[in-house]
């Protein structure tokens, strides 16, 4: 009884764990595979422009074509990437006023291809920084700061929008020279015929990165909850195995003492069992017919019941005539007792227990233990 109950419970939990492990594996793959979560791709796209595969500033991808800073920073080629915008804000080689840092000296002239070196020098001028992991909240906060820093100026019926220093005061002179180190966003603030601000290349990429980060954060929470479920199941399997091994999982059939008490109750109460029989031919075993065949009644044969209860045993039999058995394999002291253990015999086995490695072991518990190991294996494979 204990073995069958344990097997059913552990099989259910093993199946549940396999489903959870499958779900957890999918979640883990999403979180660790850049091709699935697309976070790094969108961050690269925002920082360097292009399709997200570029990992350094490139002329024509991160900025406008290689002509001059007017193309980089002021015409329709502007605002392709964050690096491109920074290079506009910090100026080119003729901007001797060191707009961004006293430790940064730009080397490019009129939009030459030195932007990779300039970007490296600009980052180095910031000193050591403790970069944390990107978050959706951090990205949105940075976007809000950028919007606050934008300078907007009415120009007739239109709005001029720029960031940085402009001698003209409206961004029309952003050419990278001293006091003209700025980046223009006019196209995204036009009242008619303009572009949506959300379509600004690096801003759109940042918003996508924030969206993917939020999705990843949600999936991470689901993964943690799934792992917690698997941990709980693993503990339950172990507890089920222990309770079954000690006979505490389910209530078993009445014990020998209970059966003897029942026999005594039957002797004291003739109406129990035997009393329900109304035909003499059916009044057998521990019952006897008293009286005429048609008018008599079936009663407990108290003499026979008493004899069976005190009958001496043979070949290891007990005082009640039963073969010596034990409810648990571990209590058997020799192969004979091991073979006599009562219970549900597993498929393809001749007995409940087997004499294995010098001791009596339960075949069914070995099966259940393998099921428990399946649960543990699924959990461990996910974690590691």
Automatic annotation (TrEMBL):
Boundaries of every Trypanosome variant surface glycoprotein B-type N-terminal domain copy: 5-231
Pfam families referenced in this protein's UniProt entry, alphabetically: Trypan_glycop_C, VSG_B
Coiled coil: 206-236
SUPFAM superfamilies associated with the record: Variant surface glycoprotein MITAT 1.2, VSG 221, C-terminal domain
Region (Disordered): 245-272, 308-329
Gene Ontology cellular component terms for the protein in this record: plasma membrane; side of membrane
Annotated compartments: Cell membrane
Composition-biased stretches (Polar residues): 255-268
Membrane topology term: Lipid-anchor; GPI-anchor
Keywords: Cell membrane, Coiled coil, Glycoprotein, GPI-anchor, Lipoprotein, Membrane, Signal
Domain Trypanosome variant surface glycoprotein C-terminal: 274-382
Functional note: VSG forms a coat on the surface of the parasite. The trypanosome evades the immune response of the host by expressing a series of antigenically distinct VSGs from an estimated 1000 VSG genes.
Protein's name according to its UniProt entry: Variant surface glycoprotein 1125.5099
Native species: Trypanosoma brucei
